[in-house]
């Protein structure tokens, strides 16, 4: 929705830190977004994610577009750092200019949450971790740049509005989620931040689903926690190796990516489906990490872009990436591969030319390199044709 944000996070995949906010002159207008909602509705998509920047910076447009998408059958999700929703006290004073610009300063947390619910928003992702830095720091007894008090107030308000449930559509799942991105030196402070938020909300660990996924619960409902690793993208490219996830060489071959798993219990009765991420400059990616650029909404419709993935050609700006992504989808159907399609692709490249894989590191960084580097793309397609014709 916007490149503007109340945070300045070095790990932001969406290139929205303060130093980069003016990189593009092209911004998706409300009318363009409505058009995209119409197209998505026509082809049977199930929902829409609002991201940014911080979507609450566009509060009034967020309400309008959420209501519009709901009427079109696309269930809306908002991805937020929570600071503007739960702002109060010193944090609210220090961010008064931003809150006024967003139209939020005169509203309290419960009013904001109720308006979001009334607009049709069905799910909320809170993004909190040790690499988040607020535009104006606020005192916190855990980490002096993360407003855990504000985030906690926001989560409590959503629980009060009944969001602590699991949606009957498997493609939606838990309606309240917390995402914490950290690895290496960032892990310990991130754990403290997450623990502090859960304690202030009054949530206790109910179930550990995996190493990276847990469910927390209180009498009002439950929150799903997902832990992610820091990828070498955005400003994080400048991080030391001891902060990144840091898989290298043959360790890249076991990379797993859920985007390539056909979901048997999904809303479409088992047909493969995935996300399309449309950046504020109109470029379409098949992953929120900007991994695979496959089209431009100013040049093509969503139908045309999807058709270009399903039936890739050798013509156009996005032809090479479309061929790569199509081949990865085909690869994911192969017995025994499925969600390790990315790792298998890198293994195949390594068998052709080990040097190409030598300087790649981290899980999402490796995936992104396959979506952007022509030498890797061409090597993968050559190996794919050789092994899987």
From TrEMBL:
Residues 2-164 form the Radical SAM core domain. The keyword S-adenosyl-L-methionine applies. The keyword Iron applies. InterPro entries: Aldolase_TIM (IPR013785), Radical_SAM_PqqE_MftC-like (IPR050377), rSAM (IPR007197), rSAM_sf (IPR058240). One of its GO terms (molecular function) is iron-sulfur cluster binding. CDD domains: Radical_SAM (cd01335). Keywords: Iron, Iron-sulfur, Metal-binding, S-adenosyl-L-methionine. This is Radical SAM domain protein. It comes from Candidatus Syntrophocurvum alkaliphilum.
């Amino acid at each position: 929705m916007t490149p503007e944000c109340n945070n300045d996070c070095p790990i932001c995949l969406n290139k929205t830190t303060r130093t980069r906010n003016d990189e593009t002159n092209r911004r998706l207008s409300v009318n363009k977004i409505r058009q995209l909602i119409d197209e998505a509705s026509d082809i049977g998509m199930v929902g829409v994610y609002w991201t940014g920047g911080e979507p609450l910076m566009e509060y009034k447009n967020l309400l309008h577009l959420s209501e519009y998408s709901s009427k079109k059958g696309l269930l809306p999700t908002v991805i937020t750092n929570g600071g503007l929703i739960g702002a109060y006290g010193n944090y609210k004073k220090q961010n008064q200019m931003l809150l006024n610009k967003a139209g939020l300063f005169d509203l309290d947390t419960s009013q904001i949450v109720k308006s979001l619910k009334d607009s049709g928003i069905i799910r909320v992702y809170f993004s909190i971790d040790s690499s988040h830095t607020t535009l104006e720091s606020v005192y916190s007894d855990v980490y002096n740049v993360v407003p855990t008090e504000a985030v906690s107030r926001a989560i409590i308000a959503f629980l009060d509005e009944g969001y602590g449930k699991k949606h009957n559509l498997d493609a939606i799942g838990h309606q309240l989620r917390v995402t914490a991105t950290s690895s290496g030196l960032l892990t310990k402070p991130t754990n403290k931040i997450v623990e502090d938020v859960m304690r202030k909300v009054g949530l206790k660990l109910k179930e550990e689903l995996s190493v990276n996924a847990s469910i927390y619960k209180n009498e009002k409902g439950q929150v799903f926690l997902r832990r992610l690793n820091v990828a070498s993208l955005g400003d994080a490219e400048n991080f030391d190796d001891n902060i990144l996830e840091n898989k290298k060489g043959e360790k890249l071959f076991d990379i797993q990516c859920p985007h390539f798993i056909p979901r048997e219990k999904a809303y479409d009765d088992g047909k493969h489906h995935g996300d399309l991420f449309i950046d504020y400059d109109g470029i379409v990616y098949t992953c929120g990490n900007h991994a695979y650029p496959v089209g431009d909404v100013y040049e093509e419709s969503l139908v045309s872009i999807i058709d270009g993935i399903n039936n890739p050609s050798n013509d156009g700006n996005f032809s090479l990436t479309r061929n790569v992504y199509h081949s990865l989808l085909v690869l994911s159907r192969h017995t025994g591969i499925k969600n390790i399609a990315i790792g298998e692709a890198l293994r195949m490249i390594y068998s052709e030319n080990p040097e190409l894989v030598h300087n790649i590191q981290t899980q999402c960084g490796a995936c992104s390199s396959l979506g952007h580097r022509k030498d890797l793309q061409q090597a993968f397609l050559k190996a794919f044709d050789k092994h899987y014709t």
